[in-house]
Amino acid sequence: MRSGHMMKGYSMRKISRLLVLLLVISACAPNARGEINRTDLVLGTVCTLRLVDGGSNRTADEIFKRLKAIEDTMSANKDGTQIAEINAHAGKDAVKIGADTMFVLQKALEYARKTEGALDPSIGPLVKLWNIGTDDARIPGKEEIRSTLSLIDYRKVQINPTALTVRLPLPGMKLDLGAIAKGYAADEIARILEKHRVRAAVVDLGGNVLVFGKKKDGSPWRVGVQDPSSDRGEYIGLVAGEAMTVVTSGIYERFFIEDGVRYHHLLDPKTGFPAKNNLVSVTIIASSSIDADALSTSAFILGLEKGMKLVEGIPDVGAVFIDLEKRVYLSSRAKKIFTLTNKGYTMAE
Asked: Where are the beta strands (DSSP E) in 196-317?
């Protein structure tokens, strides 16, 4: 038995009682006439939808129905999903999946190759081993981590995009699309908003913020980037723009502390431990939510230097890095659209 005090961060069971990760500032009041607002627990997090201009209850119904369908297909934590079936057949036969799941898996594998495994969809065994974000979170033993790492290798995942099949060749291998599935879900929300000819909307999917369309007064949307050292809704600065997605990965939401050490959920597939690189959060600004989701995780795992290089190599993507010393680092694009407002933070040179 380990000695020492354990303190846990937010667990999945507590998420429904929390506010959104990022504060979205709009000229419209939350209950302004004509708006439709809806909040629900889906994909393991809180989703808040605001139809600011256009849309109807039917629009909201279709959005949450689609989110539930994605969860029931791609979650690694629910029985009967396509990902759960793939994992259950590891070391055995291939599993037939849907086109949507194949698309998301291929995108995850694409980023695995781009980042040399910093984002690895075969990380499932490591996620299960640590169980961070649940009441069963614990520090695994060195031998447990060593044996688990032998199961993590995106290059071993066998896919047949034509036949829509996936096979994991080793018993114990597990897929986990948690680093990218919410991004896909946000893109699906945007597709439905466009289908229903919604003119303006704001979506917060557990820190994946989507601002859609244009505000009535023509001013840009302003999205607040969460202050990692404060309560939700406290922000360090603002991102201004139109029709964008803002996604943050950080160490302050899902973690536990034991013997004074914080163990967060952003696991490094190479070491088997939470990434340790002096960063507390990475925020990505982009037009595609699935790309922003993948990049926020990848850039965090890679660290400031390699993460910034990754972002700078992708057109029209911005990034805000925050380190433990409360220094803020901006990519080239972010410098044009981000304004620091919190005096407790400083801009890095």
From this structure: 200-205, 208-213, 221-226, 235-241, 244-250, 255-258, 261-264, 279-286
Residue 178 forms part of a structural domain = no
Structural domains of the chain, count: 2
Residue pair 272/126 in contact (Cβ under 8 Å)? The answer is yes
Q: Is 207 helix (H, G, I), strand (E, B) or coil?
A: coil
Bridge partners, residue 159, by sequence: 166
Task: Check whether residue 208 and residue 315 sit in a common domain.
Answer: yes
229 & 125 share domain: no
CB neighbour list of residue 110: distance below 8 Å, 6 or more residues apart? none
Strand, coil or helix: what is 55? coil
**CA 232/CA 217 separation, integer angstroms:** 28
Report pLDDT digits (tens) over 154-176: 999 999 999 999 999 999 999 99
Alpha-carbon distance of 86 to 76, in angstroms, equals: 10
What is this structure's pTM?
0.91
C-alpha pair distances (Å), 170 with each of 122, 130, 173, 270: 11, 20, 6, 18
Q: Which residues fall within 8 angstroms of residue 76, CB to CB, at 6 or more apart? A: 83, 84, 87, 124, 127, 174, 175, 176, 177, 178
Beta partners for residue 165, in sequence order: 96, 160
Strands 338-340 and 279-286: unpaired
Tell whether 138 is covered by a domain: yes
